[in-house]
Amino acid sequence: MSKKLSGTEYTPLYFLAALGNGGLAVSFFLYPMFMVKHPGNPMATFDHIFPVISEGNILVSTLLLLALGCILFFAYNHFRLLVWNLKEYNAYKKTTGYQDLRSSNAEVSLMAIPLTLAMSINVSFILGAVFVPGLWNYVEYLFPFAVLGFLAVGVYALNIFIRYFTRILAHGRFDFGKNNNLSQLIAVFAFSMISVGLAAPAAMSHTLAISVSATFTSIFFASVAVTLAMITLVLGFKSILRYGIDQQSSPTIWVIIPIITVLGIAFVRLTMGVYHNLLHKNPEPAGLFVMLSALLSVQIIFGLIGYFLLKQNRYFADFVHGEKQSAGSYTLICPGVAFFVLGMFFISWGLVETHILNIFSPVYFVILAPFVLIQFKTIRTLFKLNKKLLPKYGAAGPLVPAAKTRA
């Protein structure tokens, strides 16, 4: 059983631990997604993957089984940490710390909850597609429930954010001195995750009503995310340039990376849905190459700036390898996952589909290698943070998180 925490020990940013595990589960799905042929289907399913495992050579079968095992491992830890967080959050709401949170800049950290719930729907969808034989034959019946699920999370996210944002607008109590980070982008991340989730049925459903309604609502949440991104980036960088970035919150400089990934994938999916269901033709791969190249370029520059910043202000030395503890350190996980995910889309849609690159060629694996390296360095960081922040993390689940963090 998981041990209960006192209100002073818990923070909603612990939801990011569940989020990171969910993201890693999704990342391992991309290996069979882009490397196993699935003609006539938008994604690889049980019926495509397991015949390759049973009939393929030993190396291919072993690698696919390893990927599927990683999906199960990280999905299990995602849901275990999600349940634990929901229990702790319900207890936390009864504390004075929660009331203080609701009257400060840190109230935006509550957006980690709908962000993680949206990821849970994505993980569930992948588990069903990959491990349930023949499920894709009934997927049109499942899409309406997926749309309703994401819309429910979206309404929950809007409820949290509108209360927070209108409080600031009405009373003007936003603390710019404590905004010397990009933690406000967690709201943008949440709305982007909801958008990309809705973009899946928009692209994959052959029922016009489902596709169009999912397309509109996906565009709605993407528009909210982009609008908020422009505001929060300007305000965040203004405070950072004036006060210098807060060391404890400095990993938020990388939050733009997962936002770019989920909005980029949403755009790819929405493009597919519009072309297939409304224009009745295939999109031009060259356009996707240009768009994915631009997005990946922005991720690279923010990745480099963030890396040298976190090295210079000793964040890695103090909060990852040292004795300082912060639940916000889990912010480091999603950028690594997101860079790998967008990299896979860039290679597959930007290079392979445009016939710039042949799949499984030597150059293909050379280009893939740095993305895989980032994925595994991210996993190593996650395990290190679990050991540091959840010191009794084991078979019975995570127990005693160590410290609160500033948002």
List keywords for this structure.
disordered C terminus; Glycosyltransferase; 71% helix; 407 residues
SSE ordering: HHHHHHHHHHHHH
Low-confidence stretches: 393-405
Number of strands: 0
Strand content: under 5%
SS class: mainly alpha
Could you tell me the mean pLDDT? 92
This entry's quaternary arrangement is: single chain
CATH architecture: Alpha/alpha barrel
- Give the N-terminus to C-terminus distance in angstroms: 29 Å
Looking at the structure, the CATH topology is Glycosyltransferase
Rounded to the nearest angstrom, the radius of gyration is 21 Å
Helical segment count? 13
| Count of discrete domains | 1
Helix-residue proportion: over 70%
**CATH H level, superfamily name:** Voltage-dependent anion channel
CATH class assignment = Mainly Alpha
Question: What does the main sheet amount to?
Answer: none
The geometry reads as globular
What does this structure look like?
The protein has 407 residues and is mainly α. It has a single domain (12-389), classed as Glycosyltransferase. It has 13 helices and no strands. Mean pLDDT is 92; it is low at 393-405.
Concise summary:
This protein has 407 residues and is mostly helical.
Furnish the topology, listing elements before pairings.
Elements: H1 15-35, H2 46-55, H3 58-92, H4 96-101, H5 112-131, H6 139-171, H7 185-204, H8 208-243, H9 256-279, H10 285-312, H11 315-320, H12 333-352, H13 362-389
Helix pairs in contact: 1-3, 1-5, 1-12, 1-13, 2-3, 3-5, 5-6, 5-7, 6-7, 6-8, 7-8, 7-9, 8-9, 9-10, 9-12, 10-12, 12-13
